[in-house]
Amino acid sequence: MTLLVTGGAGFIGANFVLDWLAQHGEPVVNLDKLTYAGNLETLASLEGDARHTFVQGDIGDFALVSRLLAEHRPRAVVNFAAESHVDRSIHGPGEFIQTNIVGTFQLLEAVRAHWGSLSADEKAAFRFLHVSTDEVYGSLAKDDPAFTEAHRYEPNSPYSASKAASDHLVRAYHHTYGLPVLTTNCSNNYGPFHFPEKLIPLMIVNALAGKPLPVYGDGMQVRDWLYVKDHCSAIRRVLQAGRLGEVYNVGGWNEKPNIEIVHTVCALLDELRPRADGQPYASQISYVTDRPGHDRRYAIDARRLEAELGWKPAETFESGIRKTVQWYLDNPQWVAHVQSGAYREWVGKQYSDTPAVAA
Ligand code: NAD
Ligand code: DAU
Question: Distance between CA atoms of 52 and 55, rounded to whole angstroms?
Fold first, then answer.
């Protein structure tokens, strides 16, 4: 038995692979293109582990995926591979269309052909799990109920539109061809190995570097935060027992405005690594130009996953964010290595209004 994981050198995929191999003997074939977001250093602890086979390649490469499926005969494919950063999708949507839509289509085509060649028992046991996002549902007003799986799709950014398209393709392959698919739509993750272009790791690394902490607009946009290892446990549970063709929303019941997140990170750093001058890290907060089309609020109703499959997150926001800040304090080398020339180029482009962030 083997799993084929795509995007397993990125933030969530790598956490999934590490947790999977810590808990199971079942091998993982990890297909990742190694874009700027893919990082083999995250998987360094698996060096020499025969259960982990890394393959650099594109989910859109039909021939490569077909070969991997034929060679390794995985019992399931877990698809994390994507372009994932909303701000990058605003600067350049092309890669998002290519990987998230065309790539998922090619991946589905290769999986469909392979699945069609399996015996009846193998076919019945096979799973294609597609990892998606709450952003496909659009934006909520302050008092709207949280997103259920029945919420209509109203994506607002090129990123969320491309993820929505991929979700629709996955759904269509189930309804048209009978492919045994599962889809998860999760809220904002945070935790170890998170690339510091996203809010929480960016705030931690900028705070420690003495740089401004760029808060978009009024900082009152709300996100629902889930510790990454809880997302991984939800995916494992859906893979194990999810109903075929079904969608499961995954969330932590942790709705918080961005500015509160930034203050929490600052307070933890004040406690764990106080500034040499005794000033609070919150003094580095700087309000900057808002993200175009910025969704105001996301909130996930995870009751289906909890009631049907008995899943519950293990971390509260308080325990998860403390572990996360501590992890960044303990792993300065990982951070230094991902802050390459390409990273500096991105930060320079995104925060050009606030040169001190980009410096
Ligand atoms: P990430 O950007 O950290 O990692 C993406 C990984 O995919 C990278 O390793 C990259 O090299 C790889 N990749 C990109 N294009 C590829 C291609 N064409 N072929 C093969 N590999 C490719 O993303 P993440 O935050 O780990 O997100 C993983 C998945 O989870 C994505 O599908 C994302 O939409 C979804 N998601 C993310 C969050 C979140 O908060 N980060 C929340 C819900 C859902
Ligand atoms: O909701 C799930 C989604 O969460 C995933 O599908 C995406 O892949 C993931 O990137 C994340 O999207 P967000 O846009 O919510 O995450 P990000 O960390 O980029 O931003 C979180 C909030 O913080 C958002 O309201 C924008 C704001 N923000 C972000 C950055 C990078 C700032 O105020 N300042 C910043 O510098």
Answer: 10
